[in-house]
UniProtKB/TrEMBL annotation:
<feature type="signal peptide">
    <location>
        <begin position="1"/>
        <end position="23"/>
    </location>
</feature>
<dbReference type="GO" id="GO:0004869">
    <property type="term" value="F:cysteine-type endopeptidase inhibitor activity"/>
</dbReference>
<protein>
    <submittedName>
        <fullName>Uncharacterized protein</fullName>
    </submittedName>
</protein>
<keyword id="KW-0789">Thiol protease inhibitor</keyword>
<dbReference type="InterPro" id="IPR046350">
    <property type="entry name" value="Cystatin_sf"/>
</dbReference>
<keyword id="KW-0646">Protease inhibitor</keyword>
<keyword id="KW-0732">Signal</keyword>
<dbReference type="InterPro" id="IPR000010">
    <property type="entry name" value="Cystatin_dom"/>
</dbReference>
Length: 105
């Protein structure tokens, strides 16, 4: 899938996250509280680490929003990029204990 398609997919998933009622929306998307969900924080750190393997130098600060649909996690991450605070979107898939970053922008 092209990067533009993944970006559109990620943004669509975040738009659906805002329509979540009672923690779950149609389509099986479940909002996660990034302040209490340790897995969301771990996956945020993982996503930043994978992004940095490509020559980037983002410093993880925190996960500010998180949602899960099946094996995919949709994360909104706050990080420092060259000393400036920025927000990034990432999609991470977890299957059989193996993590794979599908998108980061």
């Amino acid at each position: 899938m092209a990067k533009a398609e993944l970006t559109i997919l990620a943004l669509s998933m975040f738009a659906m996250l805002f329509s979540v009622a009672n923690g779950q929306a149609a389509g099986g998307i479940t909002a996660l509280d990034p302040k209490t969900n340790k897995e969301a924080e771990e996956l945020g750190r993982f996503a930043v680490g994978e992004h940095n393997k490509k020559g980037n130098q983002v410093e993880f600060v925190q996960v500010v929003q998180a949602a899960q649909q099946g094996t995919k996690y949709f994360l909104r991450i706050e990080g420092l990029d060259k000393g400036q605070k920025k927000k990034f979107s990432s999609v991470v898939q977890v299957q059989s204990g193996k993590k794979e970053m599908l998108n980061f922008n």
